[in-house]
Specification:
Blueprint: H1 7-10, H2 36-48, E1 53-56, E2 61-63, H3 64-81, E3 89-93, H4 98-109, E4 113-116, H5 123-133, E5 137-141, E6 153-156, H6 164-168, E7 184-190, E8 198-203, H7 204-219, E9 226-229, H8 236-249, E10 252-254, H9 262-272, E11 276-279, H10 281-289, E12 301-304, H11 311-321, E13 326-330, E14 337-340, E15 353-354, E16 359-363, E17 376-381, H12 394-397, E18 398-399, E19 402-411, E20 417-422, E21 426-429, E22 432-435, H13 436-444, E23 449-459, E24 463-472, H14 480-493, E25 502-505, H15 519-525
Parallel strand pairs: 1-10, 3-4, 3-5, 4-7, 5-6, 9-10, 9-11, 11-12, 12-13, 24-25
Antiparallel strand pairs: 1-2, 7-8, 13-14, 14-15, 16-17, 17-19, 18-19, 19-20, 21-22, 23-24
């Protein structure tokens, strides 16, 4: 094992709590020594040469050779300047950019563990992550250093004399550390229903496995593809779609910042000639509503994930563009998509079939398989699986070797999987997972609020939104102005995408005899 720092190995779940992995496809049988960053770059350079286009922005193009050199220099800075040894955790923070991709690859080349974070997270949310992951250093966009504390930070993308670019200049690249294929490469965080984040461990082998299953067998990218997407690289949907998949295929990815909204996205897709798009159903719906879908007709592939894709959106997008949207369900715990379909295998409204390399079934609470047509819990096995870092919730997610994703599904007689609902307190809104109890705590911090309960509300624009049921303190008026004040307060205290888009005032909330909030009674009202 290459890891000198055994932090992750010592906090891996016990063997009897681990998922049962399967490597049925020949391409999933990886060598014992494997550094996924080196493989992603070295194989592309060997196939296409170092001058092949890789990362594209408005004013620059990095070739595979450029990215290989830069990531090696970042690895050198980490090892020589910051004292990073294999197994140390390095936190990454920033908007999607070539520097963020190079930093991610550099961390892995150094044998360290990349801790990817969402750029919208606030200081106390980042504090929870650093408390769990205990990073030895952070590489952070120079525009986003203010919320990060308690860890040595090196900024990138700026012009300061100690910026990462200045540190890298002229440095000899560090050869990739020969890590074991099963050693941890990244910690990806997902929200729990309690609001306390969970760190999921993923090894070097896992990173290649998501490319050699979903990407290779469903997406089927070609080297001439130009990828583009909206999900942050700190989100595993974005990490796969905007880093791992294009690099594994020897393709390129556009990493400019088109700006918020459907209009700038459509304009960018058309202008740069993107051929593969990754985004959420909310965005495809907005493109349709604004009459912009026709500008995406040059796409070869369009992927929708992060939340359920409604059948009517699929048909409307197909009629407007001729493109058959690829739907899919993935999970941070599984790293990426494990049920999907493309081309003639698509059945609009269904999520799809198990991705080659994975198997799935529908079970009851006792893990007994239920008949086709009967709703039950989705259970999955494959080359990736849930490994929480030192977290008792492992035993709820993995049972008898199966990953229980928290989704209720129906399988039909032809083996297609149809989404029904979430089985926990997680709210999926516009592709983001939002823990209701976390929002409740933020609302309760408002001085006008006496009590609060949160539930998800179906919404035609976002799939679901967060709704807060609020009991105000005596004397506070139940007005639209009070509701807006609560919403703005929450936006400032947690990531803005989590704020309650609807607020309903109540005289009291349903509680059990021991005072526990009965969220199940809020859901029908929502």
């Amino acid at each position: 094992m290459a890891h000198v720092d055994k932090f992750c190995a010592e906090r891996t779940p016990a063997p009897h709590d681990l998922p049962r992995l399967s490597f049925d496809l020949p391409e999933l049988r990886y060598p014992e020594l494997l550094n996924c960053a080196a493989v992603l770059l070295d194989e592309a350079v060997a196939r296409f040469g170092p001058d092949r286009r890789c990362l594209v922005t408005e004013d620059a193009v990095l070739t595979y050779g450029d990215l290989d050199l830069l990531s090696g220099r970042i690895a050198r800075v980490l090892a020589d300047d910051l004292g990073i040894v294999p197994g140390n955790r390095v936190l990454l923070r920033g908007a999607n950019s070539p520097w963020l991709v190079a930093a991610w690859l550099g961390v892995l080349k150094a044998g360290a563990v990349a801790v990817t974070t969402m750029p919208l997270l606030r200081a106390h949310e980042l504090a929870a992550i650093t408390q769990i992951a205990r990073p030895s250093a952070a590489l952070c966009d120079h525009r986003a250093t203010g919320e990060l504390a308690g860890v040595p930070v090196v900024a990138f993308g700026g012009d300061a004399p100690d910026d990462l670019a200045a540190r890298c200049a002229g440095r000899e690249p560090l050869p990739a550390v020969p890590t074991d294929a099963a050693e941890t490469a990244l910690l990806a965080f997902t929200s729990g229903t309690t609001g306390r984040p969970k760190a999921t461990l993923h090894c070097h082998r896992d990173v290649l496995a998501i490319a050699d299953t979903f990407s290779a067998h469903v997406l089927k990218p070609v080297p001439d593809d130009l990828f583009l997407g909206t999900p942050p690289i700190g989100f595993t949907f974005g990490l796969g779609g905007l880093v791992v998949f294009p690099l594994r295929a020897g393709a390129s990815v556009y990493l400019g910042e088109p700006g918020p909204g459907a209009g700038p996205l459509a304009e960018t897709v058309e202008r740069v000639g993107a051929t593969v798009l990754f985004t959420a159903p909310t965005v495809y719906r907005a493109l349709l509503e604004q009459g912009l879908a026709g500008r995406l007709s040059g796409l070869r592939r369009a992927v929708s994930a992060g939340e359920h894709l409604p059948e009517r959106v699929w048909h409307a997008f197909h009629e407007a563009t001729g493109i058959r949207l690829i739907d899919g369900i993935g999970a941070t715990e599984m790293l990426h998509v494990f049920i999907s379909a493309a081309d003639g295998d698509i059945r609009p409204g269904a999520t799809g079939l198990p991705v080659p390399g994975y198997r799935a079934r529908i079970v009851d609470e006792d893990l007994r398989e239920v008949p086709d047509g009967v709703p039950g819990l989705l259970a999955v096995q494959g080359p990736t699986g849930c490994r929480y870092l030192d977290d008792p919730r492992q035993r709820a997610y993995v049972r008898d070797g199966w990953n229980l994703t928290g989704d209720v599904y129906v399988r039909d007689a032809d083996g297609y999987f149809w989404y029904q609902a979430r089985s926990d307190d997680m709210i999926v809104s516009a592709g983001y997972n939002i823990a209701g109890p976390e929002v409740e705590r933020a609302v309760l911090d408002h001085p006008a609020v006496l009590d609060c309960g949160v539930a998800g509300v179906p919404d035609p624009g976002r799939g679901m939104i967060v709704k807060a049921f609020v009991v105000l303190r005596p004397g506070v008026p139940e007005t639209a102005e009070t509701a807006r004040g609560i919403q703005e307060f929450v936006k400032r205290s947690i990531a803005p995408y989590k704020y309650p888009r609807a607020v309903e005032f109540r005289a009291a909330l349903p509680r059990s005899s021991n005072g526990k909030l009965l969220r199940r009674e809020l859901r029908p009202a929502a």
